[in-house]
Amino acid sequence: MDFSGNHILSIDQFDRSDIEKLFSVADKLEPFASKEKITRVLEGAILGNMFFEPSTRTRISFGASFNLLGGNVREITEVGSSSLAKGESLADTAQVLSGYSDIIVLRHPENGSVQKFAEASRVPVINAGDGSNEHPSQALLDLYTIQKELSQNKKNLDNLRIALVGDLKYGRAVHSLCKILSKYSNVKMDLVSPEELQLPEDLLNQLTDARVSVNQTENLEEGISEVDIIYVTRVQEERFNNKEDANKYRGLLSLNQSIYTANCEPNTVIMHPLPRDSRSDANELDRDLYANPNLAIFRQADNGVVIRMAMFALVLGVEGKIEKTAKPVNWKVGLSS
Ligand code: NCD
């Protein structure tokens, strides 16, 4: 795929070499994300960071990534504060915002909305989540994290064994992750969910067409034994017609240290796209897992910065100019020990 000047809307656009290219740019950006160096390679550029649904990590890390490359960020954070609330079409909003921005990141509650918006945009658009459909930047940072965590145990993405746990029906992070994992060989996947929240049929077919070996179960203990990665997700209550229906599933698949110890291999890595539902009736990942060195959820969230920096660098065609513009950092980074 040609990144430069193009939209990123779906994992379907990527092949393995595109992923490798993005990851190699991300690796080069690590010193900039960790504030060993700074760059102003996107000086003068404007990101339109448009979030019409709640977000913490995705919005802030897209914004921070753009800032770290030297660009400026303009934001909308709710439908109520934009002209969509006055009946403006997404296409008109796209026409207007693309006149003010060099690139747009969009999150929107409707499936397919980001594609519609991109068709009317005059600048590249990155999908930051369209309803329950896709969340490509999350899948990229998840895969980057999986690769890093596995490499410590001398394993790689081919032959991966992973359990996807939780709301597999509405979870867009899981949907994009399934698509990206289907590009690797000999992947074994345990899909752990209540029957009503199983992975949609079209995605299941995509996995079997790609020869992913799939096992569907409602039993957490069964699903998480003999895997390299456990990827837990939240019940996506905002996608249910009725919140009461979502409540039925809360807390059914909670993971804690004793379940982990009894069922998992010693190096099984625990991931979650976050936010994890920590209310007592859900408790998706118990606090007692904090002491578990295989809990990778915050390393995973941190990786969002380099991955999103790499996406911007490639789409705006500056990946070869970053090193040349590098400077030392002027301030003290982090806390004194
Ligand atoms: C996910 C999302 O918004 O789809 N969050 C995120 O972007 N890290 C997962 C979720 O909200 O459950």
Structure at a glance:
The chain is α/β, with parallel strands linked by helices and 337 residues long.
- Cα distance spanning the termini: 45 Å
| CATH C-level of the largest domain | Alpha Beta
Q: Work out the helicity level.
A: 25-40%
Count of domains: 2
Query: Which small-molecule ligands are present, each listed once?
Result: N-carbamoyl-L-aspartate
User: CATH superfamily of the largest domain, called what?
Assistant: Aspartate/ornithine carbamoyltransferase
Examine the secondary-structure arrangement and name the CATH architecture of the largest domain.
3-Layer(aba) Sandwich
Poorly predicted tracts of residues: none
Shape: globular
Strand order of the largest sheet: 8-7-6-9-10
SS class: alpha/beta
- What's the Cα radius of gyration? 20 Å
What is the overall number of helices? 11
CATH topology of the largest domain: Rossmann fold
Tell me the series of helices and strands, N- to C-terminal: HEEHEHEHEHEHEHEHEHHEHE
Taking the sheet with the most strands, its summary is:
5 strands, parallel
DSSP summary, beta strand count: 11
Name the beta content range: 5-15%
Please render the helix and strand layout as text.
Layout: H1 16-33, E1 37-38, E2 46-51, H2 57-68, E3 72-76, H3 90-100, E4 103-108, H4 113-120, E5 125-130, H5 136-151, E6 161-165, H6 172-181, E7 188-192, H7 201-209, E8 213-217, H8 220-224, E9 229-232, H9 243-247, H10 257-263, E10 269-271, H11 297-315, E11 327-328
Parallel strand pairs: 2-3, 2-4, 4-5, 6-7, 6-9, 7-8, 9-10
Antiparallel strand pairs: 1-11
Helix pairs in contact: 1-11, 2-11, 3-4, 5-6, 5-11
This protein binds N-carbamoyl-L-aspartate.
N-carbamoyl-L-aspartate (NCD) binds next to helix 2 and helix 6.
